[in-house]
Amino acid sequence: MSVVPVSYYLVLSAVLFGLGVVGFVFKRNIITIYMAIELMLNAVNLAFVAFARAHGDLAGLVYVFFVIVVAAAEAAVGLAIVITIAHNRRTLNVEDVNLLKF
Amino acid sequence: MSIPFILFFICAAAAVLGAVLLIVAREPIHSALALILVMMSLAVLYLLLGAEFIAAVQVIVYAGAVMVLFVFVIMLLNAGVEVRTNYSKIAKYVGVPLGFFLLLEVAYWMWGSAVGTTVANGAGAVNADAVSTVDLSNLLFRDYLFPFEATSILVLIAIVGALVLAKKGE
To answer: Which of residues 48-77 of A touch B (CB under 8 A)?
Structure first.
Protein backbone atom coordinates (compact mmCIF):
# COMPACT_ATOMS: atom_id res chain seq x y z
CA MET A 1 0.00 0.00 0.00
CA SER A 2 1.62 3.14 -1.23
CA VAL A 3 1.05 6.41 0.54
CA VAL A 4 3.04 8.77 -1.66
CA PRO A 5 0.75 11.61 -2.88
CA VAL A 6 0.12 11.77 -6.62
CA SER A 7 1.31 15.37 -6.79
CA TYR A 8 4.87 14.26 -5.91
CA TYR A 9 4.95 12.04 -8.99
CA LEU A 10 3.54 14.84 -11.14
CA VAL A 11 6.14 17.36 -9.97
CA LEU A 12 8.90 14.81 -10.66
CA SER A 13 7.40 14.30 -14.11
CA ALA A 14 7.39 18.07 -14.73
CA VAL A 15 11.02 18.39 -13.61
CA LEU A 16 12.10 15.52 -15.88
CA PHE A 17 10.18 17.03 -18.81
CA GLY A 18 11.83 20.43 -18.21
CA LEU A 19 15.27 18.81 -18.11
CA GLY A 20 14.41 17.01 -21.35
CA VAL A 21 13.52 20.33 -23.00
CA VAL A 22 16.78 21.86 -21.76
CA GLY A 23 18.76 18.92 -23.14
CA PHE A 24 16.88 19.10 -26.46
CA VAL A 25 17.75 22.78 -26.85
CA PHE A 26 21.34 22.74 -25.57
CA LYS A 27 22.81 19.54 -26.96
CA ARG A 28 24.55 19.60 -30.33
CA ASN A 29 24.86 15.88 -31.01
CA ILE A 30 21.91 14.40 -32.94
CA ILE A 31 21.94 11.15 -30.93
CA THR A 32 21.90 13.04 -27.61
CA ILE A 33 19.00 15.17 -28.86
CA TYR A 34 17.10 11.93 -29.56
CA MET A 35 17.87 10.83 -25.99
CA ALA A 36 16.44 14.12 -24.67
CA ILE A 37 13.23 13.40 -26.64
CA GLU A 38 13.07 9.94 -25.07
CA LEU A 39 13.50 11.58 -21.65
CA MET A 40 10.50 13.84 -22.34
CA LEU A 41 8.42 10.82 -23.44
CA ASN A 42 9.38 9.05 -20.20
CA ALA A 43 8.32 12.08 -18.14
CA VAL A 44 4.93 12.13 -19.87
CA ASN A 45 4.57 8.38 -19.25
CA LEU A 46 5.13 8.96 -15.54
CA ALA A 47 2.40 11.62 -15.51
CA PHE A 48 0.06 9.22 -17.38
CA VAL A 49 0.59 6.44 -14.83
CA ALA A 50 0.22 8.84 -11.88
CA PHE A 51 -3.05 10.24 -13.25
CA ALA A 52 -4.30 6.73 -14.06
CA ARG A 53 -3.75 5.71 -10.44
CA ALA A 54 -5.23 8.96 -9.08
CA HIS A 55 -8.45 8.56 -11.05
CA GLY A 56 -8.57 4.75 -10.80
CA ASP A 57 -8.86 4.58 -14.61
CA LEU A 58 -6.75 1.98 -16.39
CA ALA A 59 -6.99 3.71 -19.79
CA GLY A 60 -3.95 5.79 -18.83
CA LEU A 61 -1.83 2.64 -18.56
CA VAL A 62 -2.99 1.55 -22.03
CA TYR A 63 -1.90 4.93 -23.40
CA VAL A 64 1.50 4.49 -21.75
CA PHE A 65 1.79 1.14 -23.53
CA PHE A 66 1.03 2.79 -26.87
CA VAL A 67 3.47 5.63 -26.17
CA ILE A 68 6.22 3.07 -25.50
CA VAL A 69 5.44 1.23 -28.76
CA VAL A 70 5.45 4.46 -30.78
CA ALA A 71 8.67 5.60 -29.06
CA ALA A 72 10.38 2.32 -30.01
CA ALA A 73 9.28 2.70 -33.64
CA GLU A 74 10.37 6.35 -33.61
CA ALA A 75 13.80 5.44 -32.22
CA ALA A 76 14.31 2.79 -34.94
CA VAL A 77 13.39 5.13 -37.81
CA GLY A 78 15.14 8.15 -36.25
CA LEU A 79 18.41 6.29 -35.72
CA ALA A 80 18.24 5.02 -39.31
CA ILE A 81 18.00 8.67 -40.40
CA VAL A 82 20.96 9.50 -38.12
CA ILE A 83 23.04 6.74 -39.75
CA THR A 84 22.14 8.07 -43.22
CA ILE A 85 23.09 11.64 -42.23
CA ALA A 86 26.37 10.44 -40.70
CA HIS A 87 27.23 8.57 -43.91
CA ASN A 88 26.36 11.44 -46.21
CA ARG A 89 27.71 14.43 -44.26
CA ARG A 90 30.39 12.78 -42.08
CA THR A 91 29.18 14.61 -38.96
CA LEU A 92 26.77 14.22 -36.04
CA ASN A 93 26.67 17.91 -35.16
CA VAL A 94 23.27 19.41 -35.92
CA GLU A 95 24.86 22.77 -36.78
CA ASP A 96 26.63 21.18 -39.74
CA VAL A 97 23.40 19.76 -41.11
CA ASN A 98 22.09 23.01 -42.56
CA LEU A 99 20.92 22.23 -46.07
CA LEU A 100 17.37 23.37 -45.33
CA LYS A 101 18.52 26.43 -43.35
CA PHE A 102 18.42 29.82 -45.03
CA MET B 1 8.72 8.29 6.89
CA SER B 2 7.41 5.00 5.61
CA ILE B 3 9.23 2.73 3.16
CA PRO B 4 7.32 3.87 0.00
CA PHE B 5 8.27 7.48 0.80
CA ILE B 6 11.96 6.63 1.19
CA LEU B 7 11.89 4.52 -1.98
CA PHE B 8 10.16 7.32 -3.87
CA PHE B 9 12.73 9.93 -2.85
CA ILE B 10 15.68 7.65 -3.66
CA CYS B 11 14.28 6.87 -7.12
CA ALA B 12 13.23 10.47 -7.78
CA ALA B 13 16.72 11.69 -6.85
CA ALA B 14 18.28 9.02 -9.11
CA ALA B 15 15.99 10.00 -11.99
CA VAL B 16 16.74 13.73 -11.68
CA LEU B 17 20.47 12.99 -11.28
CA GLY B 18 20.39 10.85 -14.42
CA ALA B 19 18.58 13.57 -16.38
CA VAL B 20 21.14 16.20 -15.28
CA LEU B 21 24.01 13.83 -16.16
CA LEU B 22 22.44 13.31 -19.60
CA ILE B 23 22.66 17.06 -20.21
CA VAL B 24 26.13 17.77 -18.79
CA ALA B 25 27.88 14.65 -20.17
CA ARG B 26 30.03 15.38 -23.21
CA GLU B 27 30.39 11.83 -24.47
CA PRO B 28 27.15 10.45 -26.02
CA ILE B 29 27.80 7.05 -24.43
CA HIS B 30 27.75 8.67 -20.96
CA SER B 31 24.45 10.33 -21.83
CA ALA B 32 23.07 6.94 -22.85
CA LEU B 33 24.11 5.34 -19.54
CA ALA B 34 22.54 8.27 -17.64
CA LEU B 35 19.30 7.76 -19.59
CA ILE B 36 19.31 4.06 -18.62
CA LEU B 37 19.59 5.19 -14.96
CA VAL B 38 16.53 7.42 -15.45
CA MET B 39 14.54 4.60 -17.06
CA MET B 40 15.39 2.06 -14.37
CA SER B 41 14.37 4.45 -11.56
CA LEU B 42 11.15 5.23 -13.44
CA ALA B 43 10.47 1.47 -13.60
CA VAL B 44 10.77 1.30 -9.79
CA LEU B 45 8.40 4.27 -9.54
CA TYR B 46 5.87 2.44 -11.76
CA LEU B 47 6.10 -0.54 -9.40
CA LEU B 48 5.50 1.86 -6.51
CA LEU B 49 2.41 3.12 -8.34
CA GLY B 50 1.18 -0.48 -8.71
CA ALA B 51 1.66 -0.71 -12.49
CA GLU B 52 3.68 -3.93 -12.68
CA PHE B 53 3.06 -4.54 -16.38
CA ILE B 54 4.20 -1.04 -17.36
CA ALA B 55 7.29 -1.44 -15.16
CA ALA B 56 8.18 -4.69 -16.94
CA VAL B 57 7.59 -3.15 -20.37
CA GLN B 58 9.69 -0.14 -19.34
CA VAL B 59 12.65 -2.37 -18.44
CA ILE B 60 12.31 -4.74 -21.41
CA VAL B 61 11.43 -2.31 -24.21
CA TYR B 62 12.98 0.99 -23.08
CA ALA B 63 16.01 0.06 -21.00
CA GLY B 64 16.48 -3.08 -23.06
CA ALA B 65 15.62 -2.69 -26.74
CA VAL B 66 15.59 1.07 -27.32
CA MET B 67 18.73 1.84 -25.34
CA VAL B 68 20.61 -1.08 -26.89
CA LEU B 69 19.71 0.47 -30.26
CA PHE B 70 21.05 3.85 -29.08
CA VAL B 71 24.30 2.38 -27.73
CA PHE B 72 24.68 0.31 -30.90
CA VAL B 73 24.37 3.39 -33.12
CA ILE B 74 26.79 5.38 -30.91
CA MET B 75 29.34 2.58 -31.22
CA LEU B 76 28.68 2.14 -34.95
CA LEU B 77 29.18 5.81 -35.78
CA ASN B 78 32.05 6.15 -33.27
CA ALA B 79 30.42 9.25 -31.78
CA GLY B 80 33.07 11.10 -29.81
CA VAL B 81 33.18 14.18 -27.64
CA GLU B 82 30.55 16.73 -28.52
CA VAL B 83 31.83 19.89 -30.20
CA ARG B 84 30.81 22.96 -28.25
CA THR B 85 30.21 25.96 -30.47
CA ASN B 86 29.57 29.51 -29.34
CA TYR B 87 25.93 29.86 -28.46
CA SER B 88 24.12 32.99 -29.51
CA LYS B 89 23.60 35.72 -26.94
CA ILE B 90 19.82 35.24 -27.17
CA ALA B 91 20.15 31.62 -26.09
CA LYS B 92 22.12 32.61 -22.99
CA TYR B 93 20.09 35.56 -21.76
CA VAL B 94 16.58 34.65 -22.91
CA GLY B 95 16.68 30.85 -23.26
CA VAL B 96 17.87 29.98 -19.75
CA PRO B 97 15.28 32.14 -17.90
CA LEU B 98 12.55 30.91 -20.24
CA GLY B 99 13.60 27.32 -19.57
CA PHE B 100 13.33 27.81 -15.83
CA PHE B 101 10.00 29.58 -16.34
CA LEU B 102 8.68 26.61 -18.33
CA LEU B 103 9.83 24.22 -15.60
CA LEU B 104 8.17 26.27 -12.85
CA GLU B 105 5.00 26.70 -14.88
CA VAL B 106 4.60 23.00 -15.67
CA ALA B 107 5.36 22.08 -12.04
CA TYR B 108 2.81 24.63 -10.81
CA TRP B 109 0.01 23.37 -13.06
CA MET B 110 0.85 19.73 -12.33
CA TRP B 111 0.68 20.49 -8.62
CA GLY B 112 -2.59 22.37 -9.06
CA SER B 113 -4.21 19.59 -11.07
CA ALA B 114 -3.16 17.01 -8.49
CA VAL B 115 -4.65 19.06 -5.66
CA GLY B 116 -7.90 19.18 -7.65
CA THR B 117 -7.79 15.39 -8.00
CA THR B 118 -7.32 15.01 -4.28
CA VAL B 119 -10.41 17.09 -3.58
CA ALA B 120 -12.50 15.29 -6.21
CA ASN B 121 -11.62 11.79 -5.07
CA GLY B 122 -11.39 12.49 -1.39
CA ALA B 123 -8.07 10.69 -1.17
CA GLY B 124 -4.70 11.99 -2.27
CA ALA B 125 -2.80 8.82 -1.59
CA VAL B 126 -2.37 6.21 -4.29
CA ASN B 127 -4.03 2.89 -3.63
CA ALA B 128 -1.51 0.32 -4.81
CA ASP B 129 -3.59 -2.85 -4.89
CA ALA B 130 -6.74 -1.71 -6.65
CA VAL B 131 -6.14 -3.16 -10.12
CA SER B 132 -4.06 -5.89 -11.69
CA THR B 133 -2.44 -6.82 -14.96
CA VAL B 134 -5.49 -8.97 -15.73
CA ASP B 135 -7.75 -5.91 -15.80
CA LEU B 136 -5.22 -4.10 -17.97
CA SER B 137 -5.04 -6.96 -20.48
CA ASN B 138 -8.85 -7.16 -20.58
CA LEU B 139 -8.95 -3.47 -21.45
CA LEU B 140 -6.10 -3.75 -23.96
CA PHE B 141 -7.48 -6.76 -25.87
CA ARG B 142 -11.16 -5.84 -25.68
CA ASP B 143 -11.76 -2.07 -25.71
CA TYR B 144 -8.47 -1.09 -27.34
CA LEU B 145 -8.12 -4.04 -29.70
CA PHE B 146 -8.22 -1.94 -32.87
CA PRO B 147 -5.52 0.55 -31.73
CA PHE B 148 -3.46 -2.45 -30.57
CA GLU B 149 -3.65 -4.02 -34.03
CA ALA B 150 -2.92 -0.64 -35.60
CA THR B 151 0.34 -0.43 -33.61
CA SER B 152 1.45 -3.71 -35.17
CA ILE B 153 1.06 -2.12 -38.63
CA LEU B 154 2.95 0.92 -37.33
CA VAL B 155 5.83 -1.25 -36.12
CA LEU B 156 5.89 -3.09 -39.48
CA ILE B 157 6.09 0.24 -41.34
CA ALA B 158 8.85 1.37 -38.97
CA ILE B 159 10.88 -1.80 -39.67
CA VAL B 160 10.55 -1.37 -43.44
CA GLY B 161 11.28 2.37 -43.20
CA ALA B 162 14.38 1.84 -41.05
CA LEU B 163 15.69 -0.79 -43.50
CA VAL B 164 15.09 1.47 -46.51
CA LEU B 165 16.69 4.49 -44.81
CA ALA B 166 19.77 2.70 -43.46
CA LYS B 167 20.38 0.80 -46.72
CA LYS B 168 23.52 1.73 -48.64
CA GLY B 169 22.74 4.02 -51.58
CA GLU B 170 22.64 2.37 -55.00
So the answer is: 49-56, 58-59, 61-62, 64-66, 68-77
Domain B1-84 has CATH 1.20.120.1200: yes
Distance between CA A62 and CA A51 in Å, rounded? 12
Sort out which chain B residues have CB atoms less than 8 A from A63's CB and list them: none
The SS3 call for residue B125 is: strand
ipTM score here? 0.91
Question: Domain residues of chain A, as ranges?
Answer: 6-90
Contact (CB<8Å) B66/A72:
yes
Q: pTM, whole model, 2 decimals? A: 0.86
Q: What is the pLDDT along chain A (102 residues), one digit of tens a residue?
A: 446 888 889 889 988 988 898 888 888 888 999 999 999 999 999 999 998 888 888 888 999 999 999 999 999 999 999 988 888 888 888 878 877 776
A14 and B110 Cβ atoms separated by less than 8 Å: yes
Nearest to B51 among A49, A71, A86 (CB): A49
Q: Which of the listed CATH numbers 1.10.3720.10, 3.30.565.10, 3.30.365.10, 1.10.287.3510 matches domain A6-90?
A: 1.10.287.3510
Q: Which of the residues A13, A32, A40, A81 would you substitute to probe the B interface, choosing the one with the greatest number of B C-beta atoms within 10 Å?
A: A32
Count of pairs with CB atoms under 8 A, one residue in A, one in B: 246
Provide the CA B21 distance to its chain's centre, in angstroms: 15
Q: How far apart are CA A74 and CA B170, in angstroms?
A: 25
